[in-house]
């Protein structure tokens, strides 16, 4: 049996499919499992031990996309897949599922595209307090899989040994030889609706550093936020004065495998509801997630409960969750009302629950 899984676009969404990959391998031990993914999120599944093949599909611009996708469709059809599961449901993924010619194609009920699937699963459009892993599991439940379980089927992304060596070199050059007391603080977010204010990050760094002089704070960000991350580091060092060396600098940018390796050897990860938070969930390191317009019930780390996970959010707001297109109150209170002191308290609690 040959099975193709499709999940395009975002890193976190690809991470959320990894429990289903493991469960499908358990259900079909002799099947050939292939995964179609776009370049940005490819490192999440490239080393997955339950997959036989990873197909990376770039997104060329303009008419080049048409030619590329036609060639990709021919490649998928030639592979003669028996089953295609489209975890995405977007126009490109649904068309590729249909173009594969697989006799069984599973996808969500989507207006205008449902006809491309042979088996359709309802997907309510309202924002529900239900985890994304469970929502995606609906597509595979009819294949005889047991209900999802965090301890048995956590999200996963294996560590890349070369990335781990690269991290060791970069941190060594920055004067950090031991990550056991390092706190990784990711200051980027996928969109402004999930971005905690820069001054709040500065205050949080100061709180964490002053609480323990042995700590080192490693600030990370996406490439587009590198300048903002540098400004946060500099402001925190200025506030800390003689303790400014606790804020690590000079590490450069990290690839996704390097970021995963960095987090895996740290004491704690703190970040907003974006790809790096979900990559952090694939480790056993304590995690503190910052949730603004989204809900922890929908996107908190999906992993063994023995690994500490804390959610920092503002409860009781009638505007949460939202569609992240317009802030109804107009002041982004779901993020601005979340104080550094609240996040620091969650961080200390997570650190106190660390596995020995």
Report on the structure:
Helix content is 37%, strand content 15%. With 356 residues, it is α/β, with parallel strands linked by helices. It folds into two domains: 2-143, Glycogen Phosphorylase B (Rossmann fold); 161-352, Glycogen Phosphorylase B (Rossmann fold, 3-Layer(aba) Sandwich), CATH 3.40.50.2000. The protein is globular, with a radius of gyration of 21 Å.
Give the oligomer, counting copies of the same chain as homo and different chains as hetero: single chain
Number of strands: 12
Major sheet strand order: 3-2-1-4-5-6
The CATH class of the largest domain is identified as Alpha Beta
Major sheet attributes: 6 strands, parallel
The second-level CATH architecture of the largest domain is 3-Layer(aba) Sandwich
Tally the structural domains: 2
Superfamily (CATH H level) name of the largest domain: Glycogen Phosphorylase B
Helicity, in percent? 25-40%
Radius of gyration: 21 Å
Kindly name the structural category: alpha/beta
Tally of alpha and pi helices: 14
The string of secondary-structure elements, in order, is EHHEHEHEHEEHHEHEHEHEHEHEHH
Inertia-based shape? globular
State the distance separating the first and last CA atoms.
43 Å
Strand percent estimate = 15-25%
Mean pLDDT: 92
CATH fold-type name of the largest domain: Rossmann fold
Unreliable spans: none
């Amino acid at each position: 049996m040959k099975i193709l899984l499709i999940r395009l676009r975002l890193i976190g969404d690809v991470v959320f499919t990894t429990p289903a990959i493991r469960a499908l391998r358990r259900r079909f031990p002799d099947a050939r499992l292939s995964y179609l993914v776009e370049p940005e999120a490819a490192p999440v599944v490239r080393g997955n031990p339950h997959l036989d093949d990873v197909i990376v599909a770039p997104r060329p611009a303009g008419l080049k996309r048409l030619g590329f996708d036609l060639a990709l469709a021919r490649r998928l059809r030639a592979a003669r897949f028996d089953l295609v599961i489209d975890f995405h449901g977007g126009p490109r993924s649904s068309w590729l599922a249909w173009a594969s010619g697989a006799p069984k194609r599973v996808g969500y009920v989507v207006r205008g595209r449902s006809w491309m699937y042979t088996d359709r699963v309802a997907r309510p459009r309202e924002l529900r307090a239900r985890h994304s892993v469970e929502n995606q599991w609906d597509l595979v439940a009819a294949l005889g899989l047991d209900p999802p379980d965090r301890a048995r089927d956590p999200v996963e992304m294996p560590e890349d040994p070369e990335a781990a060596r690269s991290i060791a070199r970069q941190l060594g050059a920055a004067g950090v030889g031991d990550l056991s007391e390092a706190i990784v603080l990711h200051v980027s977010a996928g969109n402004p609706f999930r971005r905690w204010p820069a001054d709040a990050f500065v205050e949080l760094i100061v709180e964490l550093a002053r609480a323990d002089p042995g700590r080192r704070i490693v600030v990370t960000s996406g490439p587009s936020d590198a300048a903002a991350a540098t400004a946060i580091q500099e402001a925190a060092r200025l506030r800390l004065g003689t303790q400014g060396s606790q804020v690590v600098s000079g590490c450069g940018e990290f690839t996704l495998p390097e970021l995963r390796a960095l987090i895996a050897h740290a004491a704690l990860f703190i970040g907003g509801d974006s790809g790096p938070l979900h990559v952090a969930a694939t480790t056993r390191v304590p995690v503190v997630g910052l949730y603004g317009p989204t809900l922890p019930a929908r996107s908190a780390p999906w992993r063994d409960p023995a690994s500490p996970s804390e959610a920092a959010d503002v409860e009781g707001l009638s505007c949460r969750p939202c569609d992240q297109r317009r802030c109804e109150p107009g002041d982004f209170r779901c993020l601005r009302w979340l104080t550094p002191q609240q996040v620091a308290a969650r961080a200390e609690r997570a650190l106190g629950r660390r596995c020995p």
